[in-house]
Amino acid sequence: MPPLARRLAVLAAATLTLFSGQAFAEPVKIRIGWSTMPGHMIPVLYSKPEILKHYGKSYTVEPILFRGSSPQITAMAAGEIDMAAFSALTLVLAVTNARQDVKVVADIIQDGVGDHHSETFMVRSDSGINTVADMKGKRVGSNAIGSASDTAIRAMFKKNNMNDKRDYTVVEVAFPNIPPMLDEGKIDMGTVLQPQSGQFIESGKYKVLFRAKDAVGPSQLVFLTARTDFLEKNRDALKDFFEDHVRAMRWFQDPANRTEAVKIIADFMKQTPDKLTHLFTNKDYYRDPFMFPNIKTLQDSINVTQEVGLIPAKIEVAPKYVDLSFVEEAKRRIEAGR
């Protein structure tokens, strides 16, 4: 082969190899833990391909269901998930007990912000329970020890000089099973999520004993946490992921898309849209428009977990356990119109 032809062949082969590597690189699979719908939204955020610029190209998502935030610590430690829906307590336990190197990267839901929804802890109207003090000797339904709602329960009971095991009994019950167990008298109080909490109040058979904000004030209820090694290894792909993640959440929260957004969620939950009228109103949780977590209220919640005795010592979440660079980049791209 003539020298020029040989050089051109080598150049063509190198170019093809480079192009092929870029075009056919496997998308990064992101395994994300979640536990409640429609609160966490994670299972439906990727259901509108036309609003996702990078899905299937640089990343894909596998949502993985858990009963609460606490079980996700073990899954994270075992490398079974890359991101988790954590509460304040589970973040502390992941760092101090499981010795995990993790970062808070995005908002999921915030409780009691302004006039937005705050988690409801309900009793039967005919139970004779009118104050927290009336719960002495009673049974409390909690979705998972150490979850955000569990921490609020313990904080409110502690304010009333009541302690677990001595003054009341905690029964771990998955969120969907709390309403029937209340109805059957198997527990005396439980966390009832929207939309059922609104339906229960309207029925007259149940009443709110207190709300999470009464116990802990406004809080960063649940947030997205990721393994630091996963963030560093896949930083470019994750910038694309977070751009799509934020775009999708903004699409769902846009009033112009509300009818379709509610139907997508209703179909996933196997409910009718008329049962989810609270979504994306002030009867729903607060979600930051660019998914920035509120680090101050998160720290406040961590302080509360120590006060109620769930952890021996608190951690300072910022700056060591926070990485907002991904949502910052997502905001920059979206505002730039990319």
TrEMBL record:
**Which keywords, in A-to-Z order, does the entry hold?**
Signal
- Going by the entry's taxonomy, the superkingdom of the source organism is recorded as Bacteria
Location of the Solute-binding protein family 3/N-terminal domain: 41-255
Range of residues in the leader sequence: 1-25
Q: What family is this protein classified in?
A: Belongs to the bacterial solute-binding protein SsuA/TauA family.
Q: What protein name applies here?
A: ABC transporter substrate-binding protein
Source species = Alsobacter sp. KACC 23698
- Organism classification, top ranks? Bacteria, Pseudomonadati, Pseudomonadota, Alphaproteobacteria, Hyphomicrobiales
